[in-house]
Amino acid sequence: MTTLPTFSAWTVCGIGELDRFSGAGVSHVLSIVDPGLPELTAFHAYGDHQRTILEFDDIIDPEAGKVMPERRHMAEILRFAQGETGAGAAPERLLVHCHLGISRSTAAMASLIARSDPNLPEDEIFTHLRATRPQAWPNCVLIGFADELLGRNGRLIAALRRHYAIQIRQRPDIAEAIIRIGRRREVEMAA
What we know:
The chain has 191 residues and is α/β, with parallel strands linked by helices. It has one domain: Protein tyrosine phosphatase superfamily (Protein-Tyrosine Phosphatase, Chain A, Alpha-Beta Complex). It is built from eight helices and four strands, in the order βββααβαααααα. The chain has a four-stranded parallel β-sheet, covered by helices on one side. α6 crosses α7 (172-180). The longest helix has 16 residues, at 155-170. Residues 1-7 and 84-91 have low confidence and may be disordered.
């Protein structure tokens, strides 16, 4: 298995877990939250860090009153932390979070891993992701944009389908929850 050469330390979590990382020396935070979410007070306890906030809903099909993930959101994710550390390099300690730490944040982290090593096989990206966040169910729309922007030519989406199949076998509760929130199409994507 290939190691991840660019991330010295990286974490994916949900809002309810943010307090756990206040003393962890997080240098960069990527917050992916629902539009209009009040400011998260957990970050007041963090040391000096740079934080980028993206606001869109965790949906895969348009819904009235919700903000659909867009290509520009993924472009912002892929630009995240590059300016401070150089192209392809990572901050000292990276934390990516969304509401539950299951979908938007894991899609972002998978995309950042793919950006950090263009030669890393796509299935290894998702293996690393599952090792870090066992409940990972990346948002397929975001992964589709990452696949396109990173020039992975459908390979990232194909690996996502295999990832979904693994998750359904190992964690059927997650698949059931995904169906309940109206994302059956992702469960049906499983290869």
